[in-house]
């Protein structure tokens, strides 16, 4: 089987598609034939070596966090999944894996997959795993968005951002999206009530907001000051600047900046699928790349500027 692997830490060209032995499921595991996987910020962190305490330094390292595909085999002790089931899921972001999402097959614990949304292509499903789960956790569980509240989504054009705009709108929020001006029409269709060009809008020119969802990780202190009384802010960035701002917010004042690491289980994936089924959440795909071009897909992700997710089509 073919598997995208990181051969050393560095730029996208350290990725290589290699032929390796197909894995077999152990107790509690399933073997999934992968049809599509997306490029996420976590993938870039692993590839660049910025989370080597998690990934380890032993190469090659399997690439790809999420996937959509078809169950090929389930261990005898697995209940609820059988060969032929269409599923989506994610490998554990804090564990080393022999194979991961950007491969023709992946072995994962059964608890880390769920039925893929019906009527959704594998490419679209893969684009929603991390973005949908992260945005739903941020809005529903971290800041507990209520109907009528004013919401700012920073980095609204990205995978998490486009999902957050849609879900915040579905939850009754009044949504302001920060993104490039050229994305304004598309973000308006996704549910943004207002779109501001981040290049021309200083934090002090926005707000006040009841909720801020940040996917960027910079200037968090300045945006935190745009919160109304009782406001809540959550960032999904784990950059050094973001961690410093989070620590400072826990000391100064009541408007803390919250964070979490997206790590969806089957229950959360089922919740995301429910939002897809009712039309509250749909895929936004910036580009589809064959597995052989995964290095190009990583480069496109890092250059930014696109609307939605870059997806790697692993099989037809």
Topology summary:
Layout: E1 2-6, E2 15-19, E3 29-38, H1 41-48, H2 52-55, E4 61-62, E5 66-74, E6 86-90, E7 105-109, E8 113-115, H3 122-142, E9 150-154, H4 159-170, E10 174-179, H5 184-190, E11 194-197, E12 209-214, H6 220-224, E13 227-235, H7 240-249, E14 257-259, H8 266-277, E15 285-290, H9 294-303, E16 309-313
Written overview of the protein:
The structure is a single chain. The two termini are 15 Å apart. The longest helix is centred in the middle third of the chain and has 21 residues, at 122-142. With 316 residues, this protein is of the alpha/beta class. It folds into two domains: 2-120 and 283-313, Quinone Oxidoreductase, Chain A, domain 1, CATH 3.90.180.10; 131-259, Rossmann fold (3-Layer(aba) Sandwich), CATH 3.40.50. It has helices at 41-48, 52-55, 122-142, 159-170, 184-190, 220-224, 240-249, 266-277, 294-303, and strands at 2-6, 15-19, 29-38, 61-62, 66-74, 86-90, 105-109, 113-115, 150-154, 174-179, 194-197, 209-214, 227-235, 257-259, 285-290, 309-313. The protein contains nine helices and 16 strands. Strands 3, 5, 6, 7, 8, 15 and 16 form a seven-stranded mixed β-sheet that branches.
């Amino acid at each position: 089987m073919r598997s995208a692997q990181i051969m050393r830490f560095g730029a996208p060209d350290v990725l290589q598609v290699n032929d390796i032995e197909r894995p077999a499921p152990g107790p509690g595991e399933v073997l999934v034939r992968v049809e599509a996987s997306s490029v996420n910020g976590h993938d870039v962190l692993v590839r660049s070596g910025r989370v080597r305490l998690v990934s380890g330094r032993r190469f090659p390292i399997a690439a790809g966090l999420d996937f959509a595909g078809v169950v090929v085999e389930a261990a005898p002790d697995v209940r609820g999944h059988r060969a032929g089931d269409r599923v989506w899921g994610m490998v554990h972001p804090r564990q080393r894996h022999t194979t991961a999402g950007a491969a023709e097959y992946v072995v994962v614990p059964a608890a880390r997959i769920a039925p893929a949304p019906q009527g959704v292509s594998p490419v679209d499903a893969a684009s929603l795993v991390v973005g949908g789960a992260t945005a739903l956790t941020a809005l529903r569980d971290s800041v507990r968005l209520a109907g009528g509240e004013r919401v700012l989504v920073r980095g609204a054009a990205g995978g998490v951002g486009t999902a957050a705009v849609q879900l915040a709108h579905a939850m009754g929020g009044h949504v302001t999206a920060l993104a490039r001006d050229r994305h304004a029409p598309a973000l308006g269709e996704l549910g943004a009530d207002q779109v501001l060009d981040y290049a021309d809008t200083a934090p002090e020119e926005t707000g006040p907001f009841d909720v801020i969802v940040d996917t960027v990780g910079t200037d968090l202190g300045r945006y935190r000051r745009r919160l109304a009384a009782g406001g809540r802010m959550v960032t999904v960035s784990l950059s050094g600047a973001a961690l410093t701002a989070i620590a400072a917010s826990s000391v100064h004042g009541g408007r803390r900046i919250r964070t979490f690491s997206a790590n969806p289980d089957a229950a959360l994936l089922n919740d995301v699928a429910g939002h897809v089924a009712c039309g509250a959440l749909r895929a936004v795909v910036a580009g589809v790349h064959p597995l052989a071009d995964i290095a190009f897909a990583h480069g496109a992700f890092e250059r930014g500027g696109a609307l939605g997710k870059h997806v790697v089509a692993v099989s037809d």
